[in-house]
Amino acid sequence: MAALSVDQIRALLTPFTSLELSDPLIQQVSDYLDLLIRWNSRVSLTAIRDPEEIIQRHFGESFFTAQHLATRLAPDAELLDYGSGPGFPGLPIQMLLPKIRVTLAESQAKKVAFLREVIRTLNLTAEVWPRRVEELPDSRRFDAVTMRAVEKMPTAMDHAAERVRDGGWIAALVGREIDATDAEELRIPSSEHRRLVIRQIVPRGTIG
Questions:
Q1: Are 172 and 153 contacting, i.e. CB atoms less than 8 angstroms apart?
Q2: Integer Cα distance of 175 and 125 in angstroms
């Protein structure tokens, strides 16, 4: 039996995006949620256990990110999810924007196995990079890099910038720990402290 009904999931997600939440998309979210809960009982994927909170914190924040990237990226843009963990926000972004080419960078083997199971079950096209971002070939650059719950976030954002093409974007889901003076800050619905920080990477050599 599904953890939440499709009507419950739709109601929980609606505040986070004005993009269409089709019936097949909501079913994908439901299947993903059930996989996450089942795996989380034996593999530590997320500290959040309540299904409604998972929908809001994981899927809602990811869809909020997708909406704000959709206005900045070409439909077939390449996106790197840095330290993807159980797939947030990268996989929900691809679910909502299916033409986006998503690479999930995750070095922990158990999480890699989970990501591959989600991709297989939901018939997604995302690629998994099962090592650290630093081990990606130097030539790999992306139109956007997303980040969430990454250790040492300020340092990680600097490293992420090295993977972004000129004019591309970093989108980080953060709490209070980031100084976003050089980026756009967007408050996440239903949260007092959570924010989406979006920074454009200016061409190298540009004088600000």
A1: yes
A2: 30
Phi, psi for 50 (deg, rounded to 5): -75, 125
State in Å, rounded, how far the first CA of the chain is from the last one. Answer: 55
For residues 196 and 174, what is the distance between their CA atoms, to the nearest angstrom?
Answer: 6
145 close to 79: Cβ distance less than 8 angstroms: yes
Q: CA–CA separation, 52 vs 5, rounded Å?
A: 11
- CA dist 126 and 160 (Å) reads 19
**Strand pairing report for 164-174 and 142-148:** parallel
Q: Are 68 and 198 in contact (CB under 8 A)?
A: yes
Residue 56: exposure state from Cβ atoms within 10 A (0-12, 13-18, ≥19): buried
How many beta carbons lie within 10 A of that of residue 204, not counting itself? 6
Four-CA torsion 47, 39, 103, 61, nearest 10 degrees: -40
Angstrom distance (rounded) from CA 68 to CA 173? 12
| 51-76 tens-digit pLDDT | 999 999 999 999 999 999 999 999 99
- The overall pTM is greater than 0.85: yes
